[in-house]
């Protein structure tokens, strides 16, 4: 079962992908993790990607596609995989489709985790991080025992710049402009399922598991 998980920042893609990985025993393939692993392993593709990452520029699509092709050759993907974080644009989706066709593979399912913009903003603006040990909290879902103080080390909790409302709304606009068209792209292929991303982790996971189990 070859799956793509789509969703805006804060929709819970990464968390749900890890839970699906554990239940269905297929690897979560995160492009961010893949790039870091290739860089650390110093493979030819990893060194190529490192040139762009070190310069602070985006790694070209063709390099990412080659890394995914390399990753899909690993033994643990024989029963399937969950792509998390790629593709982000229709052009990337088309390049991915061409690559999969070339290796005799195809996607079975694309799941779009749907969460309203206001819920996403509330989720992300509520995050707090310890200024010293890096422990994570949330004002609503996992608050510290003492306001603005880390339970672990007693240091001050801060809101990262990435989690401020202005930045979040910009990131969501970028998602709507660039990534949301993928929903229509995969809908036309008949492999897209929309899943409400609201509720508890377990409730959302139950919806996803029900769909994946039918593959």
Any key phrases for this structure?
215 residues; alpha/beta; Rossmann fold; 3-stranded antiparallel sheet; 8 strands
Helix and strand topology:
Layout lengths: L1 E6 L5 H12 L3 E3 H11 L2 H11 L6 H12 L8 E4 L5 H13 L6 E6 L2 H9 L1 E4 L5 E3 L18 E2 L6 H14 L2 H8 L3 E5 L4 H13 L2
Parallel strand pairs: 1-3, 1-4, 2-3, 4-8
Antiparallel strand pairs: 5-6, 5-7
Helix pairs in contact: 1-9, 2-3, 2-4, 3-4, 4-5, 6-7
Count of extended strands: 8
User: Main sheet, how many strands, which sense, barrel?
Assistant: 5 strands, parallel
**Which spans of ≥5 residues are poorly predicted at pLDDT below 50?**
none
Report the principal-axis shape.
Answer: globular
Structural class: alpha/beta
By CATH, the superfamily comes out as P-loop containing nucleotide triphosphate hydrolases
Number of helices: 9
CATH architecture: 3-Layer(aba) Sandwich
Please characterize this protein's 3D structure.
This protein has one domain: P-loop containing nucleotide triphosphate hydrolases (Rossmann fold). It is built from 9 helices and 8 strands. It has helices at 13-24, 31-41, 44-54, 61-72, 90-102, 117-125, 165-178, 181-188, 201-213, and strands at 2-7, 28-30, 81-84, 109-114, 127-130, 136-138, 157-158, 192-196. It has a 5-stranded parallel β-sheet, sandwiched between helices. Strands 6-5-7 form a 3-stranded antiparallel β-sheet. It is globular and about 55 Å long. The mean pLDDT is 92.
Outline of this structure?
The protein is built from 9 helices and 8 strands. It has 215 residues and is an alpha/beta fold. The chain has a single domain (2-27, 74-213), classed as Rossmann fold, CATH 3.40.50.300.
